Amino acid sequence: MTARALISRLLQQESLNFLLTNRIPRRALSQFMGWFSRLEQPWIRAPSIAIWRFFAEVDLSDARQTRFASLHECFIRELKPAARQVAADPALLVSPCDAIVGATGRIADGMALQAKGRPYRLIELLGEDRMVRYYAHGWYATLRLTAGMYHRFHAPHACRVEQVTYLAGDTWNVNPIALKRVDRLYCRNERATLSCRLISSGHLITLVPIGAILVASIRLHFLDLLLHLKYRGPSRISCHAELAKGQEMGWFQHGSTIIVLAPSGFSLCEGIHNGAAVRMGQPLLHLPE
How many whole angstroms separate alpha carbon 280 and alpha carbon 7? Predict the structure, then answer.
């Protein structure tokens, strides 16, 4: 058995995985990683990237560049032109990121699922009653970015970002093992809500990027600030950023989860189910007819 296979088998043991990735000083480690990943000394950069690629099975074949000044630069790498095809049909809302699909379904009684038997209340996730009312009987899709994936996210449709709300929180791991063990995990973690008004139909779509262990920040191109564990600025930020479908919105420092919320009338596209792999630009939801 290879070293990678042995380590993978050990990490698949749920109790050990949960212990190693959660029962540690999560916030301190996330802040340290944010600093460490930016170090550009070759004797740090090269082994750090090599170790990360060994454990995360990183594929750089579609990256714009393959040589990086730091681990951070490799994490937030850009794609080659046309590396992702964005579904042009205006009746389709596309995935904002590369991801593994987690829980999906209808919002019922203001509740959604993070995993089987683990519901959470939208009011705890979003913090605003009006948004919970708007998404009553709507849909949610959970998109988990693994450590080795492309970490930038994009506009799921031509839209105008009207408001960003930052909610401080913890940095629990968001892998399936933690989701099965920690109630209301998404509502506990650091996150932001991005209220996006579709230009063609006027519907409001909300993206909720959620931080996690080792995710030191969320960068949004249309805001001149960095949302991170030490951020103490206004929690609700009004903006008026118009984005084309597929246009880059920002990035996670390392990898985490984005929850997509859509109102009643939308419907999930074929193939969007728990465990499915999706790429940025792939159809995610049908707009109302």
Answer: 30
